[in-house]
Amino acid sequence: MDRTSVKIVVAGGFGTGKTTLVASVSEIPPLTTEEILTEASLGVDDTTGVESKTTTTVALDFGRITISPDVVLYLFGTPGQDRFWFMWDELAQGAVGAIVLVDTRRLDSSFPAVDYFERRGIPFVTAVNRFFGECDYTEDEIRGALELDPKVPLVWCDARDKESSKLALITLVRQAMARLKVKA
Amino acid sequence: MSFETWDGDDESAAGRFVPLYVLVNGRTAPRDSTLDLATQVVALSVDTRRLEPEYLEIVRQCAGWISVAEIGAYLKLPLAIAKVMVDVLVEQGYLAVGTPAQQRIFDKSLLDQVIAGLERL
User: What ipTM was predicted for this assembly?
Assistant: First the structure.
């Protein structure tokens, strides 16, 4: 009796369509799970000497795709705020790789995600979300702005469209396989 | 009863008056470090009568294979708490654990299966 889980991370800046992409392919409506963080307060003018702490809730959206009776794929969207890097570490650990969604109106908002996966050697593909209308940039311009390695695939997508999201996911898994062959 | 030998059982059978951190005995991380959000667990057919209501709720969610993240989402438990509680249940023989997502995937056949599964969608 066994069940293997496989993870794919869906990353990108705030409002790039991460949950939309997860929803388009997930067999369940995306679920939200929360992590509660305790942060030391940034206030420095506290004269009582009593440390004050605040709690922050980080929400993670995720979806599920049953691959076979023994294998289930989970798609985890990264928290919107870039400062929760430690959550990214947990999500990326053991993941096949990541899809980095790019909003052409704010190319720079996806740069931290590209940088994160590149530094850690985690396979990823960039998916330029066309949801926001016609793209004013060419592929080369986007690659340049994100300083993408030529080996990193770039796909055009509409995160609302199931076929388009499937293509981005399949491109990622193929990219992970190609890496496997190089290492072997 | 010392805290070291605490077994998930105490006298308060009333509702959620116990803070979550007490429920997990102050533990902040699961002992089995491979337990992650996507790891699947399933209930084993054992006597659950001694379980605290909060733990029993988790076991009930696990009638079929389910991930730690789904348990957290359905029961509205913070992930760190869900993970520790699942770990306690695994340790005490109430739940079985599936193969976690691997640190590095070297298994080509697994990736082949994933591609085939995605194509079928």
Answer: 0.87
Residues of B in contact with A179 (CB under 8 A): none
**Which chain B residue's Cα is nearest to A3?**
B98
Nearest by Cα to A171 from B111, B100, B105, B38: B111
Residue A162 · residue A25 · CB < 8 Å: yes
Number of domains composing chain A: 1
Domain range enclosing A115: 4-45+52-183
Of B38, B98, B117, the CB nearest to A7: B38
Interval B24-65: pLDDT, tens: 777 777 777 678 899 999 999 999 999 999 999 999 999 999
* Residue reference for tokens 């995605």: B118
> What is each CA distance from A35 to A57, A74, B16, in whole angstroms?
6, 18, 19
Residue A42 exposed, middle or buried by CB count within 10 Å (0-12, 13-18, 19+):
exposed
- Domain with A104 in it: what CATH number? 3.40.50.300
